[in-house]
User: Fold these one by one.
Assistant:
Number 1:
Amino acid sequence: MLTARQHGNNKRTLAMAGLAVVLSMIFYSVQAQQLAPGIKTSKAVIDGFMDKRFGMFIHFGPVSLRGTEIGWSRGSEVATEEYDNLYKEFNPVLFNADAWVKAAKDAGMKYVTITAKHHDGFCEWPTAASDYNIMHTPFKKDIVGELAAACKKQGIAFCIYFTVLDWHDADYPVHSPHDSTKNVPGNMPRFVGTIKKELKELITQYKPYMLWFDGNWEKPWTKEYAVDVYQYIKSLDKNVIINNRLGKGEHIAFSSESVGDYLTPEQKVGALNMDDPWESCITICNQWAWKPNDEMKSLKQCLQTLVKTAGGNGNLLFNVGPMMDGRMEARQVNRLKEMGGWLKKYGASIYGTKGGPYYPNETYAATRKGNIIYLHIFERKAATPELPLLPGIKIIKAHFLNGPAVTFKQETASPIIIDLPKELPDAVSSVIVLELDKNAEQIPVIK
Ligand code: FHN
């Protein structure tokens, strides 16, 4: 039986808690929906990111024990209770951060992005925010920390994937994308506090070059939260790059709802865009997390995806899903090595270039740097392919990159004709260097 004083205390506690929620709602609702001036990541930092052109995405977690999709298979192919207890048997004893980073470097990748926390809420670093983390598995090693250290040691940029939706956290009101009866009232102000705590750990302990946010499409997440979190992140590190999935709205175009530095088309090559920075995220197989015998893309598909992405003025974040024991599949590592072999020969036509001036198509794509256009020929559909004319620009000479001269015809009012040899130097993508009499980067894009 409560005494009058206890009863009074309880009422005061409840009133205080209610007041705290109301105040936080007022804070978010009146807080400027725009970022404070001068807080955006600088153009110089973004330009440096875009020069890298090619990164590794890694989707990994206890779900690899089932070979089903990370997050999404929770409560569908894998019962929620079973999914949420996989961590108790998660023991990727063959995880070797140096080997993962080497695989990325051998592929010619310049950055690595790991799922530190996906929608299932499992944290791959020893967070103080919850016990649902790697230190409470049989493995007990900091996957995020070891990967960060390996990236630093091997001179490749370390990046972190972090989701703003967490179907496992009781404070996040959506508990399943498959069954809304499982959803709960939650407590978003407290949830945002938790993710700020997690982000502070990740940013201060591992110093990521870029934060790849995800999960911005569900109702509980708002632009106000996104502005608050973006500004909070910038208070910790003004140079960390943040993708546009922190804010609301589309992934492939900026809008008034956007918060973040670059666009994120998914599972497709983004459209040619010389104004907004963008990065396509695409899987080397079909699933993001590891799936036994998943269909893997051919070298032609992989390389032409990279070239078309660069041709569109974008980056490619190419995903692998390591197996439950911590190894990447040998076939995926080999495919990446083949990509690296091509980039060793022709990387000058990808890294540090701009896309265009021609729109990529099924026959060719173009990148450019200084007074050079790199023309990427995917296949010899015609002996003499035509290029739209370049008004006021003269091609001084043409040759295969690291190869023989190429004959061409350029007349004032006609398309440019390239004379291809019977055999192209590369079966997947051959690169022709067009040396111009003017700066190629100033040419307006040409349909
Ligand atoms: O739901 C996620 C998905 O699991 C994966 O992480 C991709 C990667 O871009 N993003 C979301 C789907 O858009």
Number 2:
Amino acid sequence: MSNVIISPSILSSDFANLEKEIKRLEENGADWLHIDVMDGHFVPNLTIGAPVVKALKRIASIPLDVHLMIDNPEKYIKDFALAGSDIITFHYEAVKNNVNEVIDLIKSYNVKAGLSVKPNTKIEEIISYVNSVDLILIMTVEPGFGGQKFIKECADKIKELKPHIKNNTILEADGGINKETAQYCKDLGVNALVAGNYIFSNNNMKEAIASLR
Ligand code: DX5
Ligand code: ZN
């Protein structure tokens, strides 16, 4: 049992019953709610936007961990911040040249800033930013869809990342997390885990969440 943060992805929840699903997650031990925002450009899928985040904020009592898988995230930070996001994570690959400006923009709203990397992005590319953010999200699948298979080599990038982290930056892994892959990530020093399919496909949500700790 570890004190890892469990952030269930609502992408695998029943969208016709979001309020019930959120209450169910909270009652069964979720620490954060992971909200996957996709634009059909940065990733080949479309999901939800700031109005939905705003509605979820009214009913959720745990932090909203918003994962932007969108191009030009700087255009939408304000909307997601004002909607009530507690953490906004954007993708390095969607910005590249003005990463620091986007981090500062998120922080200007008093929201925690996260930086994410896709499977093929090398850790060395983000080293200069790791101590300016509150969270680093390592994708352990190609972003775009829930229910994919964990890519072990992606998690292994954490070994390279760890020595560069000086602050108490949170290390979060996202994609293909289940009991076994969660253990693999925790052994590497991950302290926050996103899980969608594993939590929602298990008929005992409490046990599923507890098994990731
Ligand atoms: C993938 C998303 C993930 C995904 C995780 O693009 O960023 O958050 O929903 O889902 P599972 O746990 O099903 O891989
Ligand atoms: Zn995600």
Number 3:
Amino acid sequence: MINMKKLAAEKACEEIKEGMIVGLGTGSTTFYAIDKIGRRVKAGLKIQAVVTSNNTEKLARERGIPLVSLNDVQDIDLTIDGADEVDVALNGIKGGGGALFREKMVALHSKRNLWVIDETKLVSELGAFPLPVEVLPFGYRQVEKELTKLDFHPRLRKQSNSETPVVTDNGNYILDLSLKKIKNTEWLAQKLDSISGILEHGLFLQLTSDLLIGKKDGTIEKRTSGSFREEAKHQINE
Ligand code: 5RP
């Protein structure tokens, strides 16, 4: 069977050039990119990487990839990351793996963000995937109540088969919002940004310029934000 995630992730590594500062995302798709980069580093490629989670840090260290802190770089040349959903305007939902805050920080400080997904993650409208929101443990139940009043249906993320909350790398909790369809992504992002107690949310709007999609027929499709927005315009005008 075709491994669509691996196809896209390994293709993305072709964009990495000698001397670059590379952002490494988190998740099962990014795993294949990190693995490939590790092999290139062993073969002599000189790069430094900024990681987006403790899991990615561990993996990158195991693969011998030299790491640098986000504090110690001017900016990042290229970040390769996965996503949970991507729409035709190249906006996405991230944070299924709980690393949304560091992923967004790294994305915001990257000259170029390249997402790698399998074709099942392409959607016409964001929202079927629950939107992760990272909240500080202090008073998080108040935030939960506020989100409930807004009809966002928050659910505290718990460890599997347990009542224990998932704790992020930053020591926080995650509320997953069951929204089904997000009609106005900009409005929602601003609303969530304005609520005290929310550290970050998983709406990544206009952050990514390039997307590689691994397909079940074994091909890889490349889309850029330009082509995506053209397509979105056509859909709106039809
Ligand atoms: C982690 C993320 C991941 O990029 C997203 O969940 C996709 O994961 P995967 O590649 O395992 O499907 O945002 O916080």
Number 4:
Amino acid sequence: MAEIAVFGYGTVGSGVVEVIDRNAELMKSRGVDMHVKYVLDIRDFSGDPISSRIVNDVDVILNDPEISVVCETMGGATFAYEYSRKALEKGISVCTSNKELVEAKGAELMKTAREHGCSYMFEASVGGGIPLIRTINDALTAERIDRIYGILNGTTNYILTKMDECGAGFDEVLKEAQELGYAEKDPTADVEGHDACRKIAILASLVSGKCAEWKDIDTEGITNIDTEDFRFAKELGCSIKLIAMCDFNDGCRAIVSPRMITADSPLNSVKGVFNGVLIHSDMLDDSMYYGRGAGKLATASAVVADAFECVRFDGKEVGRGWSEEKLVFADADDMKGRFFVRVDNANADAAAAALGASDKIKHENETGMVSAEMNGKEFKKKLSGLSGVVKFIRF
Ligand code: HSE
């Protein structure tokens, strides 16, 4: 029997306990007998069935030779970092859902794991329950991945879906999402694109083998998307999604931004809190991964699957990671694309001519148009010479 400890009894941590308790027999029949011996949390859970397994002192766990795997679901990069590092130094594998820590310290923690004959696993840190990390590490191991493009944040996808379907404004939908528990009280990390950025940084690191830092990635959130954008989008047969993308052709370029997504894209039908990711690789071509990118049991399931692998392979390093060498991104504005632009009606004809936009949609005060294909630098240069531009959204 493998004894497991869980760091943090919040949403995901309690999910880990539930998944292991509920599916222990099933996993045993598949070759791994797991049991949660301890849960580390400083809060008081008296009266809760978990209370007999709660410990407040991390050393109780780290000094127990029976513990072979820790599931770290604390979040943050301070205590979670210190405790994860200490566990790995003792040869205890760590499986985490903590994207902030994986992005900031993943390379170092993987190195520590290697040096101590154990594993640092992070399937749940990107795409929640969607098996993206294992797919890239295992199923696509014979592939050269040249592009990852997708919806990696459920909160913003919920907000944009509601704005699209109900014609409601950003503030109204955000408030509703907070009331329903889909959005955090402080929604900054989600709505400003930081969460999606950390996730694409982790994927960029995994594919490139070097350490991508989220602050090096151009990131724009969804706070400026308004009802007029959706009015134009509908007339263009598009939806608007927050897309995180990384392109590995000729260097590595990454960007997180809202985009108009045409009806024929499979990402167009990724709605609500769901995530959807397209991976393009040289042999397989396009493959798509879809599912719950957040939520208690979906995310916990991915953490437990990592723990299962650690036990199955007796702690030996499972999967690929990346080195501590910094990934230097090339300029995302070198990538070609088209751009949706809103211009006041008085300047619309001049803008359309400059941007090579063939079709125009005229509203009361503004005209919407889609530029010809050009790279970001060329587009921004043309845009700076125009008058009456209200905004642009990548296509
Ligand atoms: N806030 C994240 C989301 C949770 O909305 O997708 C999962 O990382």
